[in-house]
Design brief:
There is one protein chain. The chain is mainly α. It has one domain: Rhodopsin 7-helix transmembrane proteins (Rhopdopsin 7-helix transmembrane proteins, Up-down Bundle), CATH 1.20.1070.10. The protein contains ten helices and five strands. Helix 5 runs antiparallel to helix 7. It is globular and about 70 Å long. The termini are far apart. This is Olfactory receptor. It is a multi-pass membrane protein. Its main location: membrane.
Length: 314
């Protein structure tokens, strides 16, 4: 469970506690976790299946939605089964390498989702402000390059943190009061100076998620400016309706994350289990609700889903 060197004890195995203070409620807490995960897997898999199998949905907006659904599956699968194993079987033991791997996949996927939401805002901007050039600007080749760039950006910015964590000597404690591993939550148990970890983590956050959020805000300012200068009321209504589902998902993605950061920074008197539950909402709610929102708001996906479950009788 641990190795010895010239500095003393070095932990190589950690134990995730789940939600400290609510151990006797873990079984009940696991029910919404399991239901949310099942909905996320089913809903996002259905969205991917519909988009990939229907040629009329091979448009930029739906292809970006397909990327988002794939990222949602990875994000929820990387975190929820671990939490359920803790709740059901008290199986919270995790090696350092596995903990770092979980952190790498979770954080890089979260940043990928942020990048996908940004290009979806760009897609809506092009569709509304330059409708005649939409198909010539957003070609399938460009969409492929955008997808590769999003994932490379996420992986390349997170990758150095692996080495920043591997250099640390974890000799303080090996009990992590969480359901999954994250960067600073793990680094704070090291005996080394972790200022480099803190500053690099802040740089990654500011250069990816925060920058994406600012660019999305600018995109929608330009979109709203263009919409309210349209002469036709029907055209304004149609333009706003096409952005409705995307705005809902943006709020769902960034809202819990911002609230969690604020409570961690200023909510020192808030019980620890509230912080942990909020952190889980960030990785649980978007994957579950995204396919529901798009299923309700997007007519083409709604019709295809209805055709699958309620085929017309001959």
């Amino acid at each position: 469970m641990m190795t010895l060197n010239h500095t003393g004890v070095r932990h190589t195995v950690f134990r995730l506690l789940g939600i400290p203070g609510l151990e006797d409620q873990h079984i009940w807490i696991s029910i919404p976790f399991f239901i949310s995960y099942a909905i996320a897997l089913f809903g996002n898999s259905l969205v991917i299946c519909i988009i990939l199998t229907k040629c009329n949905l091979h448009e930029p907006m739906y292809l970006f939605l397909c990327m988002l659904a794939g990222a949602d599956i990875v994000l929820s699968t990387c975190t929820v089964p671990q939490a359920l194993a803790i709740f059901w079987f008290h199986a919270g033991e995790i090696s350092l390498d596995r903990c770092i791997t979980q952190f790498f996949i979770t954080h890089s996927t979260f940043m990928s989702e942020s990048g996908i939401l940004l290009v979806m805002a760009f897609d809506r901007y092009i569709a509304i402000c330059f409708p005649l050039r939409y198909s010539t600007i957003l070609t399938h080749t460009l969409i492929g390059k955008i997808g590769v760039t999003i994932f490379l950006r996420s992986y390349c910015t997170i990758f150095p943190i692996i080495f920043l964590l591997k250099r640390l000597n974890f000799c303080q404690n090996n009990i992590i009061p969480r359901t999954f591993c994250e960067h600073i939550g793990l680094a704070k148990y090291a005996c080394n100076d972790i200022r480099v970890n803190i500053w690099y983590g802040l740089f990654v956050l500011m250069s990816t998620v925060v920058l994406d959020a600012l660019l999305i805000f600018v995109s929608y300012v330009l979109i709203l400016h263009a919409v309210f200068h349209m002469s036709s009321q029907d055209a304004r209504h149609k333009a706003l309706n096409t952005c409705g589902s995307h705005v809902c998902i943006i709020i769902l993605f960034y809202g819990p994350a911002i609230f969690t950061i604020l409570t961690q920074r200023f909510g020192r008197h808030i019980p620890p289990h509230i912080h942990i539950l909020l952190a889980n909402v960030c990785v649980l709610a978007p994957p579950m609700l995204n396919p529901i929102i798009y299923g309700i708001k997007t007519k083409q996906i709604r019709e295809q889903a209805a055709h699958i479950f309620f085929p017309k009788q001959k």
